[in-house]
Design goal:
The structure holds two protein chains of two kinds. By secondary structure, chain A is mostly helical. Chain A is built from 21 helices and two strands. Chain B has one domain. The chains are: A mainly alpha, B mainly alpha. Chains A and B meet through helix 5, helix 6, helix 10, helix 11 and helix 13 of A and helix 1, helix 2, helix 3 and helix 4 of B.
Amino acid sequence: MFFAFVGGTLGITYWAARQTKTAKHFYAAGGNITGLQNGLAIAGDYMSAASFLGISGLVFLSGYDGLIYSIGFLVGWPIILFLIAEQLRNLGKYTFADVTSYRLSQKPIRTLAAFGGIATVILYLIAQMVGSGKLIQLLFGLPYEAAVVIVGTLMVLYVAFGGMIATTWVQIIKAVLLLSGASFIALAVAWHFNFNFENLFKSAVETHKNGLAIMSPGGLISDPISAISLGIALMFGTAGLPHILMRFFTVTDAKQARRSVFFATGFIGYFYILTFIIGFGAIVMVSANPLYLNEGSIIGGNNMAAIHLSHAVGGDIFLGFISAVAFATILAVVSGLTLAGASAISHDLYANVLKNGDHDEMKEMRVSKIATVVLGIIAIMLGIAFEKQNIAFMVGLAFAIAASANFPILILSMYWKKLTTRGAVIGGSLGLASAVLLVILGPIVWVQILGNPDPVFPYKYPALFSVTTAFAGIWFFSITDKSKRAKLEQEAFDAQYVRAQTGIGAEKSSSH
Amino acid sequence: MSPDVAEKIKQNPKFETLVSKRSAFAWMLTIIMLVIYYTFILLIAFSPQTLGTPIGNNVMTLGIPVGVGIIVIAFSLTGIYVHRANTEFDVLTNAIKKELEG
């Protein structure tokens, strides 16, 4: 099963490589993806192994709290649809920096966007690599380093040769596999309880050591500031993830961009409801079964709850299927990330900053492929280096940076006429710096990793402060910007606004 | 797009209608989503026992239908927006494009 997936996806990569003739194919799959396909691909990009195994594991561990996370990860999507998706498609070409630098000064804005984008991608990538290494080690018995190298190599192959076309299809296949696998497990759990969820919850409460406490919000989010801050990071972070934003350039027009979010929200929401059922199912069917326990604790840790449950409901064959799905999930997510990172390097930094936008596209594509290989090597090395580290904060930090550095500039560039280059650069940098600084000074890095007794910054999630800093900085340094360039940038807003709203002048999809 | 074309579209009353209607609708839905989500988050922060209230004599608590409900509402709101955009807003956009060509 596992080899069938790898063979099949490499076949797709070969097919995609033959289709990929221009930069437009490489970065945006020629702009020919439909709304439904893109919706599935977005879902495939967003539903990582970390969310499948992590959220079902969190439900398994503490019940209701897992659902709070799921909701946070979902509610950013409607906002993306209402405010960003169509405008993004109408204004951009390959990367979200195309939009933020539309009427502002190219070099500083693209450099900043590339920094924010690459930082987000690398942090997210490390988290995925470490998680995948451990998962593959557990599932297939491979040494950790070998697992990381395999994942890194496959992802480089998909992206370097197949570009966005291969990445999109790997994500679509993975989304379909993951949704059907998770549906089967959830259905089997529901069937086990005669489709009576009260019975499921009752058995879970009887089995779980925390009893009734698993049915209500627990200690995961203790104080209001942390709750609001986490909410901001999850909601606005989603709207600032470069690999997600990039997906909107693959569709034909604004209408398909909008349809993709509709489908994606449906698939992702459905998936989170499934993980909730799976987590509760695992409490009953895994935690009480000696087959999955080793000296009273679950083999492989809480994140393996869904994997063990797949064995409990479907035997060895289904376990094999779900393991292959988990592997596919990892590959699809890391490929999307790598492509976004490589595009930031080649399209933003190389073509538009170094070469002043005056360049030939074939060369830009070659730089992109080199960047893919380099990112792959970095990801493998960091994946191995961070094996024993606590990486849980990295996804959180990636979301915090996306929410504090990428999102404010993106939304203000679309809606706020008075935005100037100076404001965007200073405010965005302040957002980026404060997000990184507050995470380092916070309880996870400062206390748990660096071993200091007390955190300098008391909260785990910095977004409330860093996002506010970014918006305030952008606002202040824009309105006080009286330069000639600022005036021109503000005057250019109207034409940009007309294009954003109507799609007149937007990038066309390429015909074959 | 050249500045005069942009200016011409901006002068078109249909553009004015499109932008004001769509903006009002999009921001209204955004605010609905934000209010629902932050009510939920603040409830968790300040009064976790509310969501932990059992429904009748069941083990199931209020938090479960509320949580699943938010997911369903989020999806429904995207459906409502897409429906109106596909019908009303796209008709206006196409009319503006046609006038520009004709």
